[in-house]
Design a protein that fits this description.
By secondary structure, the chain is mostly helical. It has helices spanning about 5-25, 45-70, 70-95, 105-110, 110-120. The longest helix is centred in the C-terminal third of the chain and has 26 residues, at about 70-95.
């Protein structure tokens, strides 16, 4: 029987754990400024303002959605939060990167489009 090589799985697991640590360490659940977000802790003012807005407005909205106790409302809020996280990443990328070519937008917006297709 051939031996199974778990090296690839261990590499993937380490990457997932690093992402989870960044998500858990951020007040909004969005990745904080780090290697995956473009490096450095110096976030653009637009992203800082967006993070501040999310901190003050998003937590009460999430709590209200949970208090309603309706599964559809909770699921809709989860999709909304995920959409805001994707928007934050887009704002961060836009502030730090050069303008994408028109052909790149399909790749950039693919996660947003996939999220939109899951919302009833």
């Amino acid at each position: 029987m051939a031996a199974v090589d778990f090296a690839q799985f261990e590499s993937i697991l380490k990457r997932l754990e690093a992402v989870a640590e960044r998500l858990e360490g951020s007040p909004t659940g969005a990745p904080a400024g780090g290697a995956a977000a473009g490096g450095g802790d110096d976030l653009p003012p637009l992203v800082l303002a967006f993070d501040a807005y999310l901190q003050t407005k998003l937590a009460p909205a999430e709590a209200a959605a949970k208090d309603v106790g309706v599964e559809d409302v909770t699921e809709a809020m989860q999709s909304y939060v995920q959409g805001l996280r994707l928007l934050r990443e887009l704002l961060l990328a836009a502030a730090r990167c050069k303008k994408p070519q028109d052909s790149d937008w399909q790749v950039i917006l693919k996660p947003v489009m996939e999220l939109g297709s899951t919302v009833p």
